[in-house]
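Chain A, query sequence.
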Amino acid sequence: MAINIGRRRFVALVGGAAAWPVAARAQQPAMPVVGWLSSATAEDQAVRVAAFRQGLAEMGYAEGQNVAFAFRWAEDKRDLLPQLAAELVAAQAAVIIASDGPSTARPAVAATKTIPIIYQTGGDPLKDGLVASMSRPGGNVTAVTRLAKSVMPKRLALLHQLAPAASEIAMLFNPATRDPDPPLSGIEAAARALGLELKPLPAGSERELAAAMDALDRMPGAALLIGNDSFLLGSRKELGALSVRHSVPAAFEHPEFTASGGLLAYGASLMDSYRLVGLQAGRLLKGEPVAELPVGEPRKFELIVNLKTAKALHLTVPASILGSADEVIE
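Chain A, predicted structure.
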């Protein structure tokens, strides 16, 4: 199947095979193929692919020596995911990595019920309906999740420390997300415990996000907490820039958010998460059944503070936060 020039160019950045000749599909690959399915671009995920390769290397696998790669990038065109998943099945992938949460995992699951699938997510695989249990997934899907029930309240507490004058906390959330974890009621309770009022702002589309930011402009002095969701994750860079444009102290999970100007990022390390995906893939390649491979959860958490943004917002960053930060952007 033809590959567009843009996808072929980006694949070169991560050194993967973008396509397999039609004739080769009828033959068993000479070495196991790891398929990578993503709604993003190779450029966006190059660092995460590198972390995955590290985990795979720790299991004894190196590209070109005893494993091959087949990358498929939707380049933000999510409607291409079913076709790209089918291509990975045709390439006889030994395992498929669905790198962008359940929205990427579901097209892979629809394409195959036999090839093992690992997906990386910030949510709860049980609530996604993709595994039967965390210890024994039961089907052909397992996961690595950054889920940690204490993370969102901790992120809220850090935001409060950085912006103590803000008595109102606006929270972006996607109303289409099924069974968010932690639930919105749990965040409201955490806010009340800090003497704060939580104002939920729905944002599950570009139009809703624009309306939410307009509403935020009518809340002078408020701070912004951003919930975990695939739409918000995909908008992480734009959210960082928006928080600067609207002069609001804001906290999110992802490092790209602070790199784009957001004040604070705190959450499980994405790099540690993708490294763990590599370890999981290595275990599957060694013959462990996917149905019995427990869902993985990273143990490393990262705090990133954008000191430049703090100064622009006339905020003083406590020494305790500076001292515990994994990265300070100046």
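The chain has 14 helices and twelve strands. The chain has two domains: 5-147+270-292, 151-268+301-329.
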